[in-house]
User: Fold this.
Amino acid sequence: MIPSAVQWLPTSTHFGPRLAETLGIVGHEIILHRFPDGELRATVGPAATTTIVCCSLNQPNEKLIALLFAAEALRRDGAKRLVLVSPYLGYMRQDAAFHPGEAISQRAIGTLLANTFDCVITFDAHLHRTPNLAGVFPGIEAHNLSAAPAIEAVLRADTVAPTTVVVGPDEESRSWVADIASRLGLSYSVARKVRR
Assistant:
């Protein structure tokens, strides 16, 4: 068995193969088949001792099922360590029950993924009332990386005018917007969201 490999869902072909190439390790696309009743079948490539699974969890529902199936197949095939690399983690916003009867999706998905993977790596997760990513994924390694250095590099390469204003969509984006603006010596503004 090879020591490490990258596998990705079909929706993550924009970064799964690039990660494998950057790391200099084997990569495989996870093949999904949809049955007429909507059920999925996942077929993975050969497992490695450490297998990195790439999947952005925007529009997460079907992807979560595919991840569960892929993880099951990889573990059965001998993977000892499964690492989920997900640039976007869905269901992180609902970190409290704001009304009676509401599910806390962050807790439910965090437990599900912590029971499936040994490590989760993401970028700028929506952790507004949760102090850190470790609180979302109990008992496993978790890393919440910042995209700010990459955004800064892109904006610097475009020679941003000093009058540019970095804008965030809501108060919850303030820390990210302020970080990017300060890196570039720019002003920033944050919109106010009103939910009706």
Observations:
- The chain has a mean pLDDT of 91.
- Residues 150-190 form one domain.
- The helical segments are 16-23, 60-76, 105-114, 148-157, 174-184.
